[in-house]
UniProtKB/TrEMBL annotation:
CDD domains: HAD_sEH-N_like (cd02603). Gene3D superfamilies: HAD superfamily/HAD-like, Putative phosphatase, domain 2. It comes from Streptomyces carminius. It comes from the Bacteria. The lineage of its organism: Bacteria, Bacillati, Actinomycetota, Actinomycetes, Kitasatosporales. This is Hydrolase. The keyword Hydrolase applies. Keywords: Hydrolase. Pfam families: Hydrolase (PF00702). Transmembrane segments: none annotated. One of its GO terms (molecular function) is hydrolase activity.
Length: 204
């Protein structure tokens, strides 16, 4: 349990995920007030993040809440996943790939049902790290302390030996409270330097 470890978030860190405005586009298309999609589907988003609903359930709720037929549900979900998956952060992914022989590597992601299949197909994160903890598979989202404990247990590392990288400050703060070292992702240069410091020195 003394191995050095790096655990990373996906969206906004390993994936570049700028807002595409897809929900607003659908609201305009359907003649709905701004914010309607989130208001009507907020419960679905929450359920999908903890695995309380499956993909067919998501589709059924989208159809019912927005009055969409099957082809338009397909188009809606395509737009959802396009923003969710974003594009690969190639520089950081290359850095993490080079770390594989030198430390334990994991991912801790607040995810949505269906994410593993799509991210595996698009980015092969399963080959990049040893363990991926998806909230929709384990039923626990960051910043719940149980999420951090779970990823450390799966990687067989002590929290204090693990650096956690996320683009959400509350998640980084929670990791520190759980005993991990934390780094708020703002850009690749500072993140790569912080990882190097973590792996190269006992103090961080």
């Amino acid at each position: 349990m003394r191995a050095r470890c790096v655990v990373l978030d996906i969206g906004g860190v390993l994936e570049i995920t700028p807002a595409t405005g897809w929900q607003q586009d659908w609201e305009r298309r359907l003649g709905l007030p701004v914010g309607t999609v989130d208001r009507r589907l907020g419960e679905v988003w929450r359920a999908g993040s903890t695995g309380a609903i499956d993909e067919e359930g998501v589709r059924a709720r989208v159809a019912a809440e927005l009055g969409l037929d099957a082809p338009r549900v397909d188009a809606f979900m395509t737009d959802l996943w396009a923003e969710y998956l974003g594009s690969p952060n190639e520089e950081l992914i290359a850095c993490v790939r080079d770390l594989r022989p030198h430390c334990r590597l994991g991912i801790l992601s607040n995810s949505f049902v269906g994410a593993r299949e799509r991210e595996t197909e698009a980015y092969r994160f399963d080959e990049l790290v040893e363990e991926i903890v998806y909230s929709h598979e384990v039923g626990v989202c960051k910043p719940d302390p149980a999420a951090y404990a779970l990823v450390c247990a799966r990687l067989e590392v002590r929290p204090e030996d693990c650096l956690f990288v996320d683009d959400v400050a509350a998640n980084v703060d929670a990791a520190r409270e759980a005993g991990m070292r934390g780094h708020l992702f703002e850009d690749n240069a500072r993140t790569i330097a912080r990882i190097s410091t973590h792996l190269g020195t006992a103090a961080a």
